[in-house]
Batch of 4 targets.
Target 1
Amino acid sequence: MATKIQNPDDIDTFFHGLALESDGYRSFSRRPPVRSQENEGEDEPASTSLQALAPPVRKDRELASEPAPIDSTGADSFFAAMDNALSRPSAAGPRRRTACLRMYSVAEGAGATSLTANLGRLWAGEGRSVALVDDASDSLLPFYFGVRRQGLRFSSVLVQQGASTGEVQLLARNESEDRVDESGRPWYAGVLGQMGVAADYVLQRAGRPGRETASEGSGISLLLIGAEASSIYKLPAALERLGRQEIRLVLTRFRPELDLHRRLRSWLSERFGDRLAPVTLRWDEAADWALTAGRPVVDYAPSCPLSADYRELGDWLAESPAFRRTAETLA
């Protein structure tokens, strides 16, 4: 119920009443006047008038003559300059084209989140603008960049390496969002366009392939396969769900000392040829420690075997014609 003001001059009562009725106005409440020792014993005035609160009027203002005329000749040149600027052709040139890369996993635990974070970190360290998008609303991607909160829709971090400074934008999908919009474009395309994010690379952690992934936009897709027999068993179904997407297989969590892992890699190479990425991601304990430290592996343990694998895979992708030709304009 709105506060009824008995006396319009009673400012303190007005704001104090609003503060009691609505938390949204608490910042506007005013403290009651402080009584000084000199006034102790005197009756406190019932209200503070508007006239008492108004600043004193300076006598020189009262006696001032008519204001001096304003010189407006500068305004003409100002507006002429603005007309000139708006008539000039845009120097922005063509809109930036973005290379899009999706990361799928045959099964959980193949390392798609870690790969997304580390590739983003490496390319941002080269002075690129990179957007990392996650199909999961409880994305762990921000944790690799020191953002210790889950459920964030959007966050942004700067990455500096030597004289180069790049930007990493982190975006998570809402559970209510479809993975593909009505025009067949991936969910993040319109969101990044509306936010004005101009990225050189978009890396999407897309999770396990689902029935709706067969028509997911352009770009190249990586299908991560953990080096265990259960992942190989699930591989045919994953490939079928990915449809006609341009896919490169990446073997992860590889231990070269294990005979089974070597045989799995040999079988994949024979079966898929150049569709198997030439870089195998080795198992490394540093991957888990890096997440607990809130850093990508390439920063946490730059000399470990997995960091070397990430750098080699990133170089191979950046030079891959299949990756570069899928660049598109986000809108």
Note: The domain at 99-324 is CATH 3.40.50.300 (Rossmann fold).
Target 2
Amino acid sequence: MEEETMASRRQKLKSDARGFLDTHFTFYLLLFLPMYILGIAGFLGSVAFNLHDNTAGSDWLSLLSLVSSLLSVGVSFVMIDLQRGVGEFSEPVSKSFTIFNRGAYFLGSLALIILVGIFTFLWSLLLIVPGIIKSLAYSQAIFIYRDYLDQGKKIGFLEAITLSRKMMDGHKWEYFVIGLSFIGWSLACIIVIPIIWVYPYMNQTLANFYVKLAAEGAESTDDGPTVVTTHGTGGQDSGSAPTETFYPDSKSHSDDDTHDEQ
């Protein structure tokens, strides 16, 4: 078998995302609709506040941005399930608010957004590059936390961040390049391609990236959360038999990582 390269894996992740989007565009349009509405509201609000020199409006815009970020996290949960073959392309508007389905989803995601923001900011005080590197390292923490919740496993916020760092070890550059690969698509939104296609395409690709990394942890025998995934690397074969993915047990790292820097 031909050895998988970073480029070939990136193309596979993006190909899976395009396949979903081409087949279920209406679903994605409605799934992202609340975020589009919030984005438009934020843009119009920003213009209005600037015209009237209303500095108090920044608090409202910050709240709007936070809500949009939380909705985006919930939508990522949905896309992860779709790639794993355990989700359905139905009730998109309802699934837009997945983050509010469980209090633990909402509170955990909110706490991790704040913690990751603080840690990234502190690293950025040193230099921009360390801040970027750490933001990449922490990028999967919310998804790991959610997988633990869904399996009834207890995990702390800092443990989720630590596991994200371990998961992203050796994959930060790959994740960064995936993000860079969408710059051209983003510019195309201005001229040709609507953002209503590019934004779901990018987010589904990043969700596929997490699913791929999580599946690679299947070789671990530690007692972490069990995640049902479809067989193989692609998530579009819904008839495939499910397999189980294991994460390293967060408790097994307690002795080594209690004093490890975040």
Note: Residues 57-84 form the longest helix (28 residues).
Target 3
Amino acid sequence: MHDSESPPGRRKFRGVDPDQRVAQRREQLLHAGLEAFGTRGFQASGVREICAEAKLTERYFYESFKNREALFIAVHERAAKQIEVLMVEALAIAPRNAREIPRAALRAILGTYRDDPRLARVLMIEVLRANVNDTAFVASDAFAQLIEQMTLSLYPNLTALGIDAGLIANGLYGSTIYIAVRWTLDGFKEPVEQIVEHCAVFYDSMMHELAQRESVAPPPPTPPAPVAAVSEKRRMPRRKQSAR
């Protein structure tokens, strides 16, 4: 079908079809949302201000998002995914020891927050101010799962010791978040490496404790040796032949 034969509202504009234009406008709004929420905050950023940042009229906002909260969730999800990818990449190339693995992930996260403070504000501060239900918990669960996997890769016998790696991971994530929030609110005054080392204190303590518990844990019980099957022929006593 030629452009001239396209249904009304579905014709290409400057060589771009309608679906591509919608996607482009949505991308503009996502960038504008990150800028608005990450600099002015959620409460100070209305739909009108976001559209002005995106250089779009308000009718195009509602083409992609139901309301301001829906845009915030999309911005938050993209920011969380960006941090998650960086964390996974850092862990993939980190030396395989209990000291360097957490530090590699911490440097990736904290360095990104310092380089783009908008991400830090959206992910850790504004998410608590916006009315977006469980968005913060969904993101924290994803990061805690990565920490849990990291922990189990180093200490695979935690379950046998009665230790829940998931609970440990949530505690470590919480300690990192509280330090990072304070650092963000203080304007990133301290060097990244200093914050990394302060966060790492909790990881080092946990790793030391787990290593200690593994070293003193009793060995698993040895399963009993299988009993050899006795043939029916061996178990049945022979009858004595009577004298004839």
Note: The first helix runs from residue 18 to 39.
Target 4
Amino acid sequence: MHDLSFALLGVQVLLDHFDGFFISLVITGIPDLSTGRAGRRGFVMNIKRILERITGCSISITYTDNRVNIISFTRKKGHISLRLQRIFMDAPLDVVQEIGQLLKNPGRKTPLINEYFKKNRWRIRKKARLTGRIEPVGRVYNLKRLFDRLNREYFSGQLDTIVTWGRRSPRRAVRKRTLGSYNAETRTIRINPILDSPGVPSYFIEYVLYHEMLHAYLGIKKDHRGRMRAHTPRFRELERRFRHYNKAVEWEKRLQSR
């Protein structure tokens, strides 16, 4: 095996040659810029399609929580298997394009990738241990099946979030809880089991699930005052794109009035 290494503006690139081709971008002492702001996108990009167009190869993407290897890939017979730190899910178009150019030419400089990473490193959290049982199959609804369909339709299959029903509790206690939640540290979506009922329409469960998937997709942003925000204008814009949005909102109002 032949190894090469060199520095790119605070990011070290390791090139390892074996059967195919492997490249890894490794963090090397980049300062923690807690005041950095995440980049914004004007639309939901299909990163996979953009990279395929640039490289001319078929591409499979796995988003990771790796705090060291932020970009790595193997190339074999016209296919690229890319592992990408999940903060790049929210990267602007110019950064995505530079990733594509990196896939074509691993020796090139990556100033946009490096700058984006430095500004958004504060969003990477230490991995937390997942506790509790994972139960996506309920008495009425299969959350994993719903998740997979929404993931394909709205997120191009990019999310690898865990989805499960929450713990069942006495009805009075359940009413005081939120309908869904997302834990960024464990990448887990939990849906209130009160919704696992024949009386709850599937479009409403999909809406609650989609809402939490948006949290997983967009993450938490800092506004111009440095405050953390989850329900940003961009979040609300994408939320309204859910195909049954109006119907789901009306049903939620009736649920809250009971």
Note: The first strand starts at residue 2 and ends at 8.
